[in-house]
Amino acid sequence: MATQGSVKPFVNFNAKHDAEVLRKAMKGIGTDEDAILMLLAARSNAQRQEIKAAYKKAFGKDLVKDLRSELGGKLEDLIVALMFPSTIYDAHELHKAIKGVGTEDQVLIEILASRTCDEMKDIAKAYKKEYGSKLEKDIMGDTSGHYQRLLLILAQGNKEEGVDESRVEKDAKELFAAGEEKFGTDEDKFINILGNRSAEHLRRVFDAYKKIAGCDIEESIKDECTGNLEALLLAVVKCAKSVSGYFAESVRESMRRAGTDDETLIRIMVSRSERDMLDVRAMYKKKYGESLYSTIQANTEGDYQKALLYLCGGND
């Protein structure tokens, strides 16, 4: 795991002791939410898995089931999310997005555009193991058209590596010819280039594109495409430029609507807490002139807010 996470392994970790603290917080009348959230938000994902095992061993009970029955609302959603092993969490979010009522395209787009190739391969394996069906097959059953094609390319986690100098200029010209230059858009060109090239390569292509087209590739995508395909292409472009920049923007969006989009807020805070939360915070401050911490403070409340601020890890 990257060291840019806000949540780091707890130094004097003792799974048995933590399991006892949690049991005590949940036993008897009333629940000590504070003790639960302070402990679990300050442990790494791997440590939480050990606590789960120690809890089962000591008390013969399923920790996640107990947490579910003792907690409620958004705090419960957040704490339960923290208890999933991170790869299984991504698989679970994808499955829920595909199999729920209507497809939650925002979730598919976010996860498939932002995860590394290795992460994507692991997620596909976990998905098959957990749900007995293939991620690609489920995506096919629930989406269509060019949008589906790009999702499937990304789901394979087979992007090329490095920069192919001889193709940078060619790719930029092809994108220009496929969009700005012709009547109607050649979506396949966009999908093949944006879906298969490495982030480093694409950053070079975007620079070359700007020189040819006189505008950013994002502008062209917004002009040329609509709906889910547009949203997915934009996410791929943003992630190629900066994954933490993409998440800074997404987490901002989740709190800007009338009423906070807590599902997205929870998913981002949980899934980035050990990957790149420090970078997300820095990008957030740079883009919006205020800290992520203060935005969370203004848009959430209670124990749920407290747990989110722990995951955020500090005020900038």
From TrEMBL:
Keywords, in A-Z order: Annexin, Calcium, Calcium/phospholipid-binding, Repeat
Pfam families documented for this protein: Annexin
* Gene Ontology annotations for the cellular component aspect, listed alphabetically: cytoplasm; nucleus; plasma membrane; vesicle membrane
* Gene Ontology molecular function, alphabetical: calcium ion binding; calcium-dependent phospholipid binding; phosphatidylserine binding
Family matches, as InterPro entries: Annexin (IPR001464), Annexin_repeat (IPR018502), Annexin_repeat_CS (IPR018252), Annexin_sf (IPR037104), ANX5 (IPR002392)
GO term, biological process aspect, one = negative regulation of coagulation
Instruction: Say which domain of life the source belongs to.
Output: Eukaryota
Cite the domain annotation text: A pair of annexin repeats may form one binding site for calcium and phospholipid.
Q: Which family does it belong to?
A: Belongs to the annexin family.
From the Swiss-Prot or TrEMBL record, give the protein name. Annexin
What species is this protein from?
Cyprinus carpio carpio
